[in-house]
Amino acid sequence: MDVRLAAQGLAIGYPGRRIGAGIDLELAPGGILCLLGPNGCGKTTLFRTLLGLIPAQGGEVLLGGRPLAAARRAEIARAIAYVPQAHAPPFPYRALDIVLMGRTARLPALSQPGARDREIALRALDRLGIGDLAQADYSRLSGGQRQLVLIARALAQETPLMVMDEPTASLDFGNQARVLAEIAGLAGGAGGEPLGVVLSTHDPDQAFALGAEVVLMKEGRILARGRPEAVLTGEALSTVYGVPVSVERTEGGRLVCLPALGRRPPGQAASPEVMDIA
Ligand SMILES: Nc1ncnc2c1ncn2[C@@H]1O[C@H](COP(=O)(O)OP(=O)(O)OP(=O)(O)O)[C@@H](O)[C@H]1O
């Protein structure tokens, strides 16, 4: 089955508000796309458009070569799982109930999740090291715990593609590494068939760690796309984030991005993001 997700000349935004345009990208099982860009540049808006949650303002999204706009909600949910930024629901669901929601698109109409769905949901929680939270009230979990539950929900959905909006944002150092390893494993086929994963992050080092294809965004447009070594240069990162950044190689051979605090790159205007602390 062809489950590639593609954006062609995509324009994104909200009624009366254009956020971005001219966006082309493609995600196939086995691939990892890492979306980087400053706050407010349109990453979440792009994800919501790729998922069909808001309509494209121009161009189109194709799922398996067919227009996403023509696909039914359940069909999209069987192809693409979504890990939104962690939020608290208005009702006190158990963490297990939240994960079971990932099974909805797999169930016949009007039927309740069964023993197998429960087993899959519990396995997803265990895989992320939070099996002990299954009966906990989701609304009382920490931001990072909620984020892990939402990732478990996406795993339980058993889709070939996964869209993850800042999946490591609230996680501690160890859980960030665990989730990155999980993403690499999913794309590598550790859970069975290789998945295609697109994630957004504010940490460019994650793109190096994952060896992911990078999509660098600014103001709703794609500035550069390709291998992290080619795209994530000090110059490109300095331009996009408005702070001087150098990219250096560690003794172990890994590239890391280092923002220099207190100095601006030549020609950069003063920005509230630049801290003059030197
Ligand atoms: N429902 C909405 N209606 C109108 N504008 C919106 C809506 N939601 C978001 N926006 C605007 O769209 C722009 C892009 O927001 P978006 O959340 O896509 O950015 P982002 O790159 O994901 O940001 P961050 O890195 O801070 O999460 C912002 O200016 C935001 O104010």
UniProtKB/TrEMBL annotation:
<keyword id="KW-1278">Translocase</keyword>
<dbReference type="GO" id="GO:0005524">
    <property type="term" value="F:ATP binding"/>
</dbReference>
<protein>
    <submittedName>
        <fullName>ABC transporter ATP-binding protein</fullName>
    </submittedName>
</protein>
<dbReference type="InterPro" id="IPR017871">
    <property type="entry name" value="ABC_transporter-like_CS"/>
</dbReference>
<dbReference type="InterPro" id="IPR027417">
    <property type="entry name" value="P-loop_NTPase"/>
</dbReference>
<keyword id="KW-0067">ATP-binding</keyword>
<keyword id="KW-0547">Nucleotide-binding</keyword>
<dbReference type="GO" id="GO:0016887">
    <property type="term" value="F:ATP hydrolysis activity"/>
</dbReference>
<feature type="domain" description="ABC transporter">
    <location>
        <begin position="3"/>
        <end position="244"/>
    </location>
</feature>
<keyword id="KW-0813">Transport</keyword>
<comment type="function">
    <text>Part of the ABC transporter complex HmuTUV involved in hemin import. Responsible for energy coupling to the transport system.</text>
</comment>
<dbReference type="InterPro" id="IPR003439">
    <property type="entry name" value="ABC_transporter-like_ATP-bd"/>
</dbReference>
<dbReference type="InterPro" id="IPR003593">
    <property type="entry name" value="AAA+_ATPase"/>
</dbReference>
<dbReference type="Pfam" id="PF00005">
    <property type="entry name" value="ABC_tran"/>
</dbReference>
<comment type="similarity">
    <text>Belongs to the ABC transporter superfamily.</text>
</comment>
